[in-house]
Amino acid sequence: MSKAQAGMDYRLARGILYEEAAKAAAGYVDQSWVKPIEALSEAAAGKSLTHIAFLGTAILAKCTVPTIDVFSVKKRGGENTYSARGLCHGVLVPNAPELDISLGVTGREPLNNQPYVGIDRLTRAATVRSTVQGVLNLLCDILDRLEGATEEQARQALRAYIEVRRRHGTRYSRSVSDRVAISIDTLVRSIDALVSASSEGGRRAQAVVAGLMDVFAGADRVDARRINDPSRTIPADVNVRRRDGEGWERVFEVRDKAVSREDLYLLVNKCIGGEVDEAVMVAIAPSPSMSLLDEARAWAAERGVSLSVCSDWATLVGQALHWGPLPTLDGASELPGRIEQRLIELEVTEEALTLWGSLISIPGAAEGSA
User: Fold this and answer.
1) pTM, whole model, 2 decimals?
2) Which of 182, 202, 211, 226 has the lowest CB atom count within 10 Å?
3) Per-residue model confidence as pLDDT tens digits over 266-283
């Protein structure tokens, strides 16, 4: 049995990562590796950043076990295979922030996304959108070279990866205070302006709902799914755990576009048997017709799921703050900072963060009735 089959040595991998990061900082970087990694970083920006995390994982694996299959995604018993997700989650993700290495995505499970979900080994034939086939080809070109590299060449590749990804990190910084004196009316108008200005694939709306639930239930009870995350462990986009930690008190599917009949039934179907007390469809765009909603509610109730639809921010914000543990205005004062943190976690554009900061710091924001 190979060392890779027996299990990747994460302590050794971490040591190599820090050792090569120090050498990269000292300038010991091979430019022949920098150029293709830079090309991949540029091509993947805003399209398929998961490939960046996979490349870093494959390079670190090659440094740790020179005979490793660098195209390996899962450890399935094949020769020289390993769990890329395990190495990424166990070593790269927790140590990258300290080393100032941008993995492209900031979630705890960067490889829990397409095309890495459901495949044992990456190939050029992996299922990707046609618009990012070129990114996959660039990645495989680098992996082809890495496959035949010596241990020292692999370490050179790792130093180049660190050098490039240190330059590509998004420098997010918090600008909103933990507490902001703001009226409910101004808060709702600011949220509406943030989301209506740009969808960003639903990120802005999802960040608002997640931030609102942080205030309502506490961040330790809120699990928010990353955009395009195929996770099967949580039922919806934003989920609030019951106080005892078993099952879900409320789950929210967030849409800033028109909601169809299929959307409603799919949400309910995901909640059936999943210990969900209430399912909420946040449909800020034109909401479903009342007849369709009544039909879906009845269908859901027959299956033990309470379904509701919220079609405007004022209602959702008002209800959550009213029923939350804090006095309404105290909860409202915490919401801007909570939303900003969720925007950062969902990797919105810098424009979104700038806009949000400007919206909630409008002169006179603290004036007006609640």
Assistant:
1) 0.59
2) 202
3) 899 888 877 898 999 998
